[in-house]
Every structure is written in structure tokens, then in C-alpha cells.
Design goal:
The chain is mainly alpha-helical and 72 residues long. The protein has a domain of 34 residues. The chain contains three helices and no strands. Helix 2 runs antiparallel to helix 3. The protein is elongated. It starts with 13 loop residues before the first helix and ends in a 6-residue tail after the last helix.
Length: 72
């Protein structure tokens, strides 16, 4: 079994440490937002909501791709 260790120098790298510790929380925030946008473009009857949700969802996907991250 492979293992990886990430080391932080505290308190200098506190912000980076906090980001790493909460990475799965950030992933869930983005996942929840993606699901909320999906609800709008799939179930809304308002054409403007659908267009906006679609545009925002596409932008979010572009950002995920640009940063090389996945919600899978």
C-alpha cells in the first residue's frame, strides 16, 4: 500500500494547512452547487433561469477543467 505525507510549517503555512484539511468540504460545496444549478436547468419553467443556470454550470465545468480537478 502506498502512502503520501504532506508536511506544513506552522504557523507560517496555516492557510495552506487549513485548505488541505478542508479539501473534501470544498469539493462537497462545489458538488452541491452543481446539483442546485442542475435542478434549475432541468426543472425550471422560467427560460431566463434555465439559461442562467446552464451558463453558470458550463462555467463551473470550465473552471474544474482549467484547474484539473474532478468531482468524481
Amino acid at each position: 500500500m502506498a502512502q503520501a505525507v504532506i508536511t506544513f510549517t506552522l504557523p507560517e503555512e496555516q492557510s495552506e494547512f487549513t485548505d488541505a484539511v478542508h479539501a473534501s468540504d470544498w469539493k462537497m460545496v462545489v458538488w452541491d452547487m452543481k446539483q442546485e444549478l442542475r435542478k434549475y436547468w432541468k426543472y425550471s419553467e422560467d427560460e431566463h433561469e434555465i439559461k442562467l443556470a446552464t451558463k453558470l454550470s458550463e462555467h463551473l465545468n470550465d473552471l474544474l477543467n482549467d484547474y484539473g480537478v474532478s468531482l468524481d
